[in-house]
Predict the structure of Acyl-coenzyme A oxidase.
Amino acid sequence: MESYEERVRNIVNHLTPPREVLMNDCSSSSEEQILNSNETSSSSTLTWNKQELFEYLEAAPQHIKVAKKKLQELLKDPIFAPKYNMNVQQWRELTLQRALVIIKAGAISLAEFNRDPMKYLISMEMLNLVDPSLSVKLGVHFSLFGNAVLNLGTEKHHIKYIKDIDTWKLPGCFGMTELGHGSNVQGVETTATYDKTTQEFIINTPSDSAQKFWIGNAACHGQACSVFAQLYIDNVHYGVHVFIVPIRNADGTTAENVRIMDNGHKLGLQGVDNGRLWFDNKRIPRDNLLNKFGDVEKDGTYVSSIPSKSKRFGSMVAPLVGGRVLIAASALNVSKMALMIATRYAYSRRQFGSKGNEIRIIEYLTHQRRLFPMIATSVALSFAVEKLKRIYCEPNKSSQNVKDLHVWSSGLKAVVSWTKTNILQLTRECCGGQGFSSFNQIALFKSDLEIDMTYEGDNHVLLQQVARNLLVELQKGRYTLTNPNHDSSNIHDYDFQVQTLKWRESDLVSTLSQKIMAQLDQGRSLEQGWNTCLDTITLLGKAFVDRITLEEFQLGIKNAPSSLKAVLELCRNLFFSWKVNEDLGYFLCHDGLATSTAQKIQDSINVLCSDMLPIGLDLVNSFNIPEQFIHAPISKPDYIQEFRYGLKRDY
Amino acid sequence: MESYEERVRNIVNHLTPPREVLMNDCSSSSEEQILNSNETSSSSTLTWNKQELFEYLEAAPQHIKVAKKKLQELLKDPIFAPKYNMNVQQWRELTLQRALVIIKAGAISLAEFNRDPMKYLISMEMLNLVDPSLSVKLGVHFSLFGNAVLNLGTEKHHIKYIKDIDTWKLPGCFGMTELGHGSNVQGVETTATYDKTTQEFIINTPSDSAQKFWIGNAACHGQACSVFAQLYIDNVHYGVHVFIVPIRNADGTTAENVRIMDNGHKLGLQGVDNGRLWFDNKRIPRDNLLNKFGDVEKDGTYVSSIPSKSKRFGSMVAPLVGGRVLIAASALNVSKMALMIATRYAYSRRQFGSKGNEIRIIEYLTHQRRLFPMIATSVALSFAVEKLKRIYCEPNKSSQNVKDLHVWSSGLKAVVSWTKTNILQLTRECCGGQGFSSFNQIALFKSDLEIDMTYEGDNHVLLQQVARNLLVELQKGRYTLTNPNHDSSNIHDYDFQVQTLKWRESDLVSTLSQKIMAQLDQGRSLEQGWNTCLDTITLLGKAFVDRITLEEFQLGIKNAPSSLKAVLELCRNLFFSWKVNEDLGYFLCHDGLATSTAQKIQDSINVLCSDMLPIGLDLVNSFNIPEQFIHAPISKPDYIQEFRYGLKRDY
């Protein structure tokens, strides 16, 4: 055996290459050596039927599967083939033409929006995989404008508008956001003043900060807009209401007393024609008020079944919850697609090692630690997102359903969109230069979906909704506090895992409560106290989502075909260890874990990654993303062939 | 005083708004209340001369300041005005025209590259603020192709090429990366076989994986390429050498025995015409070998002063270090610019609160915790990056300089580019929808600079260089291990701070050494052991950069005008607390901090943010970024005015 000194010398020699050489030192090790160097894998024989896992993750009833297949066929139309090299005008035109193909086929319709929301959701998710501009453009028209007509309007509106919406005869916009007011919708400045002499509303933009801003379809194609405005009758203010306002004539010219400007070039979603709107004493008939929650009679009498202004407002924005559900679901799909692309590349791309036998880059621990925890996280989130979709589509929602829908959609929209952003970043980097090429798909999603964190509710604002709900539950005595578990011998035991995540959430909610109390004791207002705690509030929102994700995952494992349980459990363990590791400072500072347990959890990550190594490729290939949507050349088994001379990609 | 039950009821009432309302509850608090609700600020009277801080951060000698001003004047030419709405061809044409303006003015030249590298660097940094495609296109031509001619070639090459390079008569490419080989440059497949009968080299692309890939200027404008190829003479292999190979004729047609394809649309840098190259028995004269480190005589005799192939290779890639220096410097500039834009917006944008008196969004703790630590980090990094630039520009480098340059450029390129990516993400989100608009500048940088993490050395590979150097130092007995400091009473004391960061680095380097030893004990190869430790290696690389950043910052504070010390110290404390907080799990798991100290550090962040609140705007306005380059409408004092009706931005 070598002496210590000999070994040191040996190491120093190995570690002293020419200083400027930009590579690591694995130049002599073969792939097999590296494979063997991993910790003993307990999962080396893990196998399952890929189609079975695909279908279990897909979790769709039969009629939806049929609809999906039909839409998949439609999406084989060459107009949906990838195309990137366009200026804004070309992007918008292509997106419009794509939208018209969908509409002509009746693949998306408002008629179905309420009747079979799951089918609607899943169709929109699929369009998002093809072209996010397309799904957003149609989403503005159907999920926002159409949804307002459907769920804030009454029969007269349904009769007048639904057919024209379904045929794109009346392309719609959603006029909520103003330059000066995004998150604070209740603060919009646009006014709607009732003129009883003519039985019209007069819509006005009182200042430049009141211009409607970022309005999808407004720059080019929209003809009507559901405008959020403060209602005034005889100088009395009745709060925010929604009105149908014509903004363009059928020939495409701008309507009278409306001014339109273009929002211009953006980071992504170039195909969506976002615009800005001003109204100058724009008169609209009394019938154009979407009057389900509040109406104005001919003589100017205001009638509503909901007396409180803010509760009325709440009812009016309630239908927007669908947008958050769709963002969470779409972000998860895109995460999976990016992981499929990057993981396939990682198992075929080789770099360093002996000539002719270079090492697959997935063998590098840094690569494993970037991809595998995110694969596990995507699988974990599948079950919580699926549950959210089910609650959203529940036709007769209990009051618990309604509350869960609000809290879960807020929390999951925020956490899944951030997770997706993180995954797109990691996969971009894992693919190196190839990740920068539009042809490999990650780039477009990175640009287009960046706005996920902002629209349909800023993520930080949404997490406040989650925290507020938990605090109310605590104050009402409906929240059970959990103790930490300091003596777990098995960190892979679900009971230990869930207790650990429950403890963190519970510790955060009671900390939050105490901190706010302390602020009140110091004579500060609740609002001041709330702002002082926004860091805790954000952590609490995320902790809640982690906990429900773990719980839903465990339910999913319980209900899974037995052949899938082992691989799902591996994912659950990695998800858990990764999540705890990310927040280890909190657990240790607040005595939520013993240091030895924390260390065990930290150490488990590399072992779980080793377990994942033999099956990582099979796992992403079991993801419920139809192969048809993956065209990245680096995702193909022989990526070199995809770049052979003469094979052109002029798009 | 209220009873506990009354207070609870009060809170529950406040916290139970209509469930769907997408806003927080601060609707009744005025800005003043929120301001007062912050912890007592010790810095409320902190003032300094903004110009003084600007100049201290700029740190440029007088002749460079003059050159900067001159370049700033040139950059007022309308061709440099922002423009985004273009397809790839238009982007490339505009970038070329911009490049020609720079070249015609002689603002960047190879002649100066070695003579005054600091001036060259700073000029390139400035171009990057205007248009990263422009700086990258010129960077490929000068810093890569030209640098190869200058520093790998000899006098005959200088005489033949330098003038034509400086005038763009000979636009150049840098043919290092191949489809199959990015990080592993030594593994390139392209061959250069010497034919002594004609005294020519025959350049060949033996397979599709050997095609030169991502070659800037290759798709459209390049006429010559410095090609990295394996040299063979009489079937003997001499390792990688660099050759000047013509790829286009002066009329723009493709040269004989060369095939070119386009890399196509990318996430960013659309103005750079990246292309792919194949060589088919392309014959070039013997003189086209850049022969500074190895030459072939007429009769085929190989001569070199460096006997080892890999050392020779090291010398050939050594000049590339400048690219890493430039990436670090440019990434820091862009970070500062993004922070200036987002911070100015945060101090003027208002949302929620009582009507007519809404709260500036910077008042929200979540906003402060995103922007302020990054402002502090940017200031901190300024001094380390400045030091790196000074080492790089040192005309007579000591061997310590050479080593530091390698390690510092590797570490800082990785850490600063990741920090920049994080800052662009945070500022994008902090600006909400406005962050998504190209007009507000963050979007373009987000797309264009995404590749920073990959080119000029993948960040993970670069951090291995840092770790390897530290391990060698340890093994050679030149690394002093540091003990943790468990009883600090003042976390704002520099000695405590630096000891804490030194301990982490030292703990990681000794852990790494032990882990590798243990692997060797188990019979594994050094390469296997190295791969098993890649997670520790990455942490170590980052820990090293944090430590040198803190040390350089402290030196910068020591040397600063006394009026600037207080604000710089505030930044240092926030930088330190943030960095430790990010990695608290490590400190606590490895007993590097007492739990009570860890908690103190955690708690300090909100207090330091409060201290920053009154001065955050002044601080970013003192950043050394010329106002001329900031055109984002949201960065203007009255951003609403920037969006008034009729003010068009058709670019």
Summary: Residues 251 and 563 of chain A are 60 Å apart (CA to CA). Chain A touches chain B through 153 residues (CB under 8 Å). The two ends of chain A are 61 Å apart (CA to CA).
